[in-house]
Amino acid sequence: MSLTNGENTGLDEERARERDRRFVWHPWSPVNKSGHDGPVLVSGEGYRVRDATGRFYLDAMASAMNSSCGYAHPALLAAAERQLARLPHFDLSVGSHLPVGRVAERLGGLMPEGLGRTLFVNSGSEATEAAVRIAHDYWTNKDEPRDRIVTFADGYHGTTYVAQHLSGLPTNALYGDEPFPVTKVRAPLAPRELRTPEGLAALTEAFERAVLEGPPPAAVFVEAFLNVGGGVVLPGGLLRALRELCDRSGALLILDEVFCGFGRTGRMFGFEHDGITPDLVTMSKGISGGYVPFAALTTTEEVYASFAADPLIGGLRYGHTTGGHAVACAVALAVLDVMEEQKLVEASAALGGQLLDGLLPMLDHPEISDVRGLGLVATVECHRPEFAAGLVAGAAARGVLLRRQGPCVMAIPPLIIDRSGIAELVRSTGQALADL
Ligand SMILES: Cc1ncc(COP(=O)(O)O)c(C=O)c1O
């Protein structure tokens, strides 16, 4: 691939921007007359994307934190094309198709023993919505109704009404009545003190109080790494403590692997760092590498079988028209093949080490309060959001797209990145910092 910046794409960038300004409503973005100031992208290859002016960027946002196999991967393109030509989709509430069974079997094989039943949806938020519904209905099915959910206050599980209700992040504040009780655990220490034995003790105690005080919860619903909540590395052992707590209280343990799953943290799933078995796992993003919308939820036979008691249909009263879309299933199967062939989980662990080592010296800068990471996700936390914004803008000017969440700058490159890509990412981010 030619990396010549400024190569003519034959597109009128200004016209594209004008159309965008007039007709597109960008989510999570300020509404203003001058429009969105991010790049207008036209293509991607490997770990780079190209904008309408012909400029290349190293994509350290992995699209929307999705990209595992990178852009224009021939195996993924071929899988999508083949399935599109054969059968785009069929309604799974009345029938089935070949790729859905194959991908469900494959996911079951990746999970710990006992987790083998999978429901497919289209987005991480839908997986959250379904997981909460299943947890509530499970207790109703058992004739012991429970509805309280325990979560992290700084967790993020999506943007539907129910998913927003699980989060205490200010941008997720509910705009209506609370549909069911949620106990939100606030981290008792700053992120840099959290990943220590003291952090583990303090967080475990906070979750113990949240779970054991009050009515028994239906579920504890957590991420293995707080993504939108500031790219926070949680202390090793926390998920084991939560597993024990759930066993004591009967609550289901739901792991949100929408971001962590499929190699992002250097393991296939984030919960593997603690060697636990959740009761329910939600997945999206890396599962289809950002090529097509896709999400899934895997649970135990016990949870599944409890739905025979549903009085109306003897099953789950939840589903979406395009859930388990055949093309998405075919792409997910190809993603899993690529991950295996290219050893992307191992690569994530090894290159993640290089990324973190490269960024750690930034800690010497007075504007930076913490540098942390796990697998191929690294967070540089600044004291001020404006400084973080300056760092992201400076890196973009040097051809590296980083992600910002408040005062935190996150580097989340596709898992197919190589050592020279990581070196470039570290160098450009360091130069952007030096320029500030
Ligand atoms: C951990 C986690 N859960 C759920 C979601 C929601 O997924 P989606 O945006 O596909 O609805 C996200 C999205 O960033 C996420 O990071």
What's a concise summary of this model?
This protein has 14 helices and 17 strands.
What can you see in these coordinates?
It is a single chain. The protein is an alpha/beta fold and 436 residues long. The chain has 2 domains: 13-69 and 343-435, Aspartate Aminotransferase, domain 1 (Alpha-Beta Complex), CATH 3.90.1150; 76-341, Aspartate Aminotransferase, domain 2 (3-Layer(aba) Sandwich). Helix content is 38%, strand content 17%. The chain is built from 14 helices and 17 strands. The protein has a 7-stranded mixed β-sheet with strand order 4-12-11-10-7-5-6, sandwiched between helices. It has a 4-stranded mixed β-sheet with strand order 1-2-3-15. Helix 3 (74-86) packs antiparallel against helix 11 (326-341), helix 8 runs parallel beside helix 9 (238-249) and helix 13 (385-397) crosses helix 14. It is globular and about 60 Å long. The two termini are 32 Å apart. Pyridoxal-5'-phosphate binds next to helix 5.
Q: Termini separation (Å)?
A: 32 Å
Structural class: alpha/beta
CATH class annotation of the largest domain: Alpha Beta
The description of the largest β-sheet is: 7 strands, mixed
